[in-house]
Amino acid sequence: MKRRLISFKFIMTIAIIEILCYMAVDMYLASMTDIAAFFETPYSKVQLSLTFYLFAMGVGQLFFGPIIDYFGRKIPLILGTSLYALCSFAITTSSNIELFLLYRIIQGLGVALIYICLISMVRDVSKGKVAAKIFAILITIGAITPILAPAIGGYIDQVFGWKAVFYVLFILAILVLILSLFILPETLKDEKKVIINFKNIFIIYFNIIKNMNFLIPAFATCLMYMFIFGYISGASYSYKEIYNLDSKTFGLVFGATGSALLFGALLSTKLLQIVNMKQISIFGAAIIIFGSVVSFISSNISVVGLDGIVIGFFISFFGLGLAEASLFAIAMSSQKTSVGATAALLGSLQLLLPATATLVAGYLVEISIFYWLGLLFILSILAFIFTCKVFRIEKTQF
């Protein structure tokens, strides 16, 4: 049954939906100054839309996780995609920044529902190395799309204006809705459904999070996501304000960095056939540290400067691509029941903590680029430490 469900169409549809989810994260990044001018509000207030969106995604998953363990995956996925589409259109009708932020929050909740349905579907039909390979694709998309999307959004904004970015998201959401209806099956079997009892939700989450086989790899991946979103938050200011890149070049730099993560994740799927998850994860985490050191040192050498910083991030993101999928699969495989709640908790942690990183990184980079790069170096060290700790407590085949 599981092999029949894991088809090429299934994986591709899941991947396309995840692309849609993460395009909304920051596809409008290059448009933020235009949005601020449109609403006659400070840039910092527009930037809150990214933080609020991530918080909404994180908190929403905690609420929706137990629900999809009862109602299944497909119907909630359709509802979440519909909400995404409606909010994408509603954002273009906003008359003030407050409405803009409100629609972003609701959009984040819709994406939260979509995301946990996707992760739970994968876990329903796969486990072990098979799950790790699929998660490698999804994690790569989840990390690379927020880096590539601003480049795409920048071109759209330059030609058609900032509202066109959200019109594109609306159209894509409608297309994804049609794909979901006709291609994706319901993957949750009736015998595995869990009766909803909201009084027990926190007990369920507590039981999951107290399991060290879940908590340690989950926190390791959270630190890696903090690195990614810390980079996104600080790069916009540092590249454009400190190194004076224009919007087009800025987008190209984002794209180049994101491609490294893709290469790392693709290589990890091949390496999983010949080496174990421990070797890939620790090696990838070590590469993240090396890249962050290169970036930090380059920022102190005027001759190297921006080129060295970009090269350092390219190296770090390659390491991220190698390490994340295995850690993600280990965390998800720690639970045999309440898979939706597990996916919700893991996804929530991977958004709430990075949301705080966007605030800290954005604050530090305005003070000094050295503080920003120093923060990312600390995050890389912590990610390596927790990755090593994963395999000290892991007692399974991983």
UniProtKB/TrEMBL annotation:
It is a multi-pass membrane protein. Keywords: Cell membrane, Membrane, Transmembrane, Transmembrane helix, Transport. PANTHER family: MAJOR FACILITATOR SUPERFAMILY, POLYAMINE TRANSPORTER 2-RELATED. The chain crosses the membrane at residues 7-30, 50-68, 75-95, 101-122, 134-152, 164-184, 214-237, 249-268, 280-303, 309-331, 343-363, 369-391. It comes from the Bacteria. It is found in: Cell membrane. SUPFAM superfamilies: MFS general substrate transporter (SSF103473). This is Bcr/CflA family drug resistance efflux transporter. GO terms for molecular function: xenobiotic transmembrane transporter activity. Belongs to the major facilitator superfamily. Bcr/CmlA family. Residues 10-392 form the Major facilitator superfamily (MFS) profile domain. One of its GO terms (cellular component) is plasma membrane. GO terms for biological process: xenobiotic detoxification by transmembrane export across the plasma membrane.
